[in-house]
Amino acid sequence: MKVSARWPRRPSIGYNVLSLAYYRAPGLPDDLFEYPLDYFARAIDWLAAFYTRVSVLGASLGAEAALVIGSYYPDRVRLVAAWMPTHVVWEGIDARARFGGEPAFASPGKSRWSLNGKPLPFVRKIHFGGTNAEAARHCHG
User: Fold this and answer.
1) Total-model pTM
2) What are phi and psi of 10, to 5 degrees?
3) E strand residue ranges, 1-141
4) pLDDT at residue 93, as a whole number
5) CB of 137 within 8 A of CB of 130?
6) Residues facing residue 32 across a β-bridge
7) What is the DSSP letter of 113?
8) What percentage of the chain exceeds 70 in pLDDT?
């Protein structure tokens, strides 16, 4: 389990926060393909040993993770807070496309998440080969 110091510990107002890195951190993968939800479940179980109520918070891609975690582990997670979430599980992320600018790797054809060794159903991305503005013009005329 990799712990990040991104979110502060807030005991003065009743919150203790564990910020859990899951990719693009030392010792973790750069790509996000079929990442095991078990990783998050272990962290939740660890927190549950110390606290009676465990919640999950995520923003953007983390919001997708938070909603998936809450959906698959409703008996372990009391509350899910998702900031800028998506309503589906999206196709995985190949770091060469997202961070290296190599569009040939933009659509890997694999789910972002897995459960018990099996990929979750996902929605494939459509790659237009241009900029976001060009893609918007293509979609909206």
Assistant:
1) 0.75
2) -125, 55
3) 2-4, 19-21, 35-36, 55-59, 79-83, 113-115, 118-119
4) 78
5) no
6) 93
7) E
8) 70
